[in-house]
Amino acid sequence: MSIPEASAGHRPRTLAELRRSGWTSRPVKQELYDNFLTRLQAGEELYPGIIGYDDTVLPELNIALLAQHDLLFLGEKGQAKSRLMRLVGSFLDEWTPYIDDPKILLHDDPYRPITKRGQILVQTSPPEDVPIAWWSREQRYAERLAPGTKFADIIGEIDPAQLAAGVSMGAEEALHFGLIPRMHRGIFAMNELPELDELVQVGLFNILEERDVQIRGYPVKFDIDVVILFSANPATYNRSGKVIPQLKDRIGSIIHTHYPLERELGVRILEQEVDVKQHADHRLPLTEAAGELAENPKSEGRNLQPVVVPYFMKELIEEISRAARQSKYIDHESGVSARLSLANYRTMIASARQRAAVLGETPAVPRISDLGHIYASSLGKLELDLMGTHQMGERQVLDAVIAEAISTVFAEYVDKHGLAEIAQIFSEGVKIEVGDMLPSSHYESLISRVPPIWDKAFEVNASEDPAVRASCIEFVLAGLYATDKISRSQKHGRIVYEL
Questions:
Q1: φ/ψ bin of 379: left (φ > 0), alpha (ψ from -120 to 50), beta (otherwise)
Q2: Domains, the chain, ordered by start
């Protein structure tokens, strides 16, 4: 039982008050089980912010929580493993009591203390004299990254200062506690398990199976109550010798994660993770979307440039990541993180904002030419397949991936019937120049000579706004180039399309 939030200001402050409150002590796994089951039965949202896992990952996670297991989240980078681990912590009680004694370095359970000092205090002191404090849900969850982690960091070590003060080496007071003992009655998460030193992996054996901590073999034991979560990449986790078999055997359930199975899910993640309050919805009428932002600028900047992002541009950003994951030039074992899409999306919007600010256009509307800046946000996030026979550099690989993404999305948006008419104008010697710093009026003047031909292009995202129409024009031109209908030349950030 947890103390109701309504009585937060009157939480028990002594052991006597705690007993009168009716609070009951539960192991952490039982606490997670009870709270998870309560929310499940109530039909509440269990994993806010998690998209695309409803039919795959989350059912397995639900079962693992009900089975009261320690968990391993196995998946490639950028698959929300850390977020899922943190959401497991949301099933803890909002507050939990502990013995408030500065000499007890753990959050000792007032009903079941595991430290010698806590046991003596509860057994020999009147309940009215045993002070109680409260530990919040957020503080009961701790993470650690495996690389560089030492035994003393997460389990403990003999404290030389205590030995110098005359404390016996076999006494509790001689110990420096690591993260896991300090998370007694909480959750400890270890990211990138295969990178954990073997000595530390051995130290986790007893904790996972016996819930017991021993430091340097001295007869000081603690019955730790802690839930342990791990994350790992399949390529390294399954590699022989990276994770000790006995440790694998002690992990209760493995939860396999994955990238969004459909592009639409990836776009939803983009819209959720990037601060969508800064951007107008492409589905709103343009004046309404821009006006809404003008009336509600964020407090951090009154000069926030409103942005309208055509849906096909969001799809292109996500498709670039999807194409990279399938590219033969990129190491599939490494994966392509969802952070690539997020970084590229922000870069694209930043480029559109820069143009709008310089040219005085409102709203800012991203175009294909803005993708010329995503090299800065992409290079370094793609690991090339060095075992392949290709001699392409990272920038060349990214160019190929972008071209493939444009071709894929373009084929879905524009019916092949009618493209010959648009391509025909180039056979007559027409050249069209585009660029990330050209005003929208530039595009309007270019197509004014043959407006009926471009009606097909504007069906991509219906709008009378020049900036949106400019974005549509660039999309069609890039699509025609990607499908080998026209050619292009590029110089100093500007692109000229011709037959």
A1: beta
A2: 5-256 (3.40.50.300), 263-498 (no CATH)
